[in-house]
Specification:
Elements: H1 11-35, H2 39-65
């Protein structure tokens, strides 16, 4: 999958990895909300995780161009 930069030990990969880790935390929080039956919390945390992951891809592409 082409995301605009090469994976490896470089700054864009680090930027993406940081965002991906934070997104995984929010997916975990969504799982806790889903297990408790709180659908609005589940939806909000999943949306936040998706947006953080998308921002990570966009930020990594910007850093890769500089």
């Amino acid at each position: 999958m082409e995301i605009g930069f090469d994976l490896g030990a470089n700054v864009p990969s680090g930027v993406f990895a940081l965002h991906a880790v934070i997104a995984v935390v929010f997916v975990g929080l969504a799982g806790v909300n889903g297990a408790n039956g709180e659908t609005i919390g589940l939806a909000i945390y999943l949306a936040m995780a998706g947006m953080i992951a998308i921002v990570g891809v966009m930020a990594a592409r910007i850093v890769a161009r500089r």
